[in-house]
Amino acid sequence: MSVTPIDGSVLVVNAGSSSLKYQVLDPRTEEVIADGLAEQIGEGQSRIKHWYRGQEVVVDGALADHDAAIAAVLDLFAADGVDVADSGLAAVGHRVVHGGRSFFEPTLINGTVRSEIERICPLAPLHNPANLVGINAVTALLPEVPAVAVFDTAFFHDLPDAAATYALDAAVADEYAIRRYGFHGTSHEYVSRKTAETLGRGYDELNQIVLHLGNGASMSAVAAGRPIDTTMGMTPVEGLVMGTRTGDIDAGIVFQLARVAGMSIDDIDTLVNKRSGLKGLCGENDFRSVLERADAGDESAQRAYDVYLHRLRRYIGAYMIELGRVDAIVFTAGVGENAAPVRADSLAGLENYGIEIDAERNAIRSAEPRVISTDASAITVLVVPTNEELAIARQAMEVAYGS
Ligand code: AMP
């Protein structure tokens, strides 16, 4: 087999219900070779943005399903002279949202694993079926390349029982596997390990609070390398206020909407997951716009920001108590990495708790991990960019080859 530019690399696939994100990267050098996103799959007018070695192409056209999307992506590689099927691609890593109680480690995909992922689809009806479609489509086109599933819930599989258990009728919870699973685990693990590396400390020496603030948002408390709590629960809707999700709400609201507003369960699901959060409060889920509008005096954007921040601070306080001693508070993902005001405001006035942000350090923009607290701050505050694709690629290599 001839050596191609992607020889020895990993294809990372993140299949959503109507989208497909992918990246080809070399986990040894961390070099990203290709990156892309197919959107609005199955919706008539689809679009693929494909980036390969510095060149971006955008292709508009209909993609009937994920098989068609993956075939189209392979065609884009072929146009650049890369036959992915015969390229020496080392492995494929698939992000799978929900591992249920079955999966808590990256797992080599075979027929049995596929059936088990299918069996737990009811736990994540919006996500796992799409992940499975992605797995099946890539496997059909690249049958010889080892494929590994990396589960978003895995890092949290061993949450302490008290943190993982809802105070729901225990028999019902048990029958339907209702418990707190936690999500964004690949990111929380990557970032908390990177934090230890950045500080030159052992992972198991540090107690950390990790804030993954993107369009989806979650927080975790990691004690000596072991997560002891996280804000997302049975589904990714619990916890922090997000771009379009409510985060924590009173379950009674669901009954109220069904009984009084006559909404169906599907309508309420859409409301809670897609029409709420920042978008529900001010019409927009892009955090940059929320900040700009709030700065310009827009009341609904300011209110959305205040509600977002109130929830963040509540959980920071809770996790400080749960951890007892906190060594590091770490911000990551789109908002956490880029929005200095959110970092400053979420930790403002906590000097008595040993938290002191350095305004100049906080204002620095960089793609590197960095400390933003003062040297005198007892708790170190950092920004550590997440890299879920790299984490998935490394785990895929580890499972496929033990390296
Ligand atoms: P993610 O889901 O991690 O890609 O994060 C997406 C979110 O990060 C969106 O709400 C963006 O508006 C937000 N974001 C990206 N860059 C910035 C920035 N410079 N300032 C504020 N928010 C940002």
UniProtKB/TrEMBL annotation:
Cross-referenced PROSITE patterns: ACETATE_KINASE_1 (PS01075), ACETATE_KINASE_2 (PS01076)
Pathway per the UniProt entry: Metabolic intermediate biosynthesis; acetyl-CoA biosynthesis; acetyl-CoA from acetate: step 1/2
Enzyme active site: D152
Cofactor note: Mg(2+). Can also accept Mn(2+).
Main subcellular location: cytoplasm
Enzyme class: transferase
Positions bound to ATP: K21, H212, L213, G214, N215, G216, D286, F287, R288, G334, V335, G336, E337, N338
Family: Belongs to the acetokinase family.
HAMAP family: Acetate_kinase
Designated name of the protein: Acetate kinase
Organism: Gordonia hydrophobica
Name of the gene encoding the protein in the UniProt record: ackA
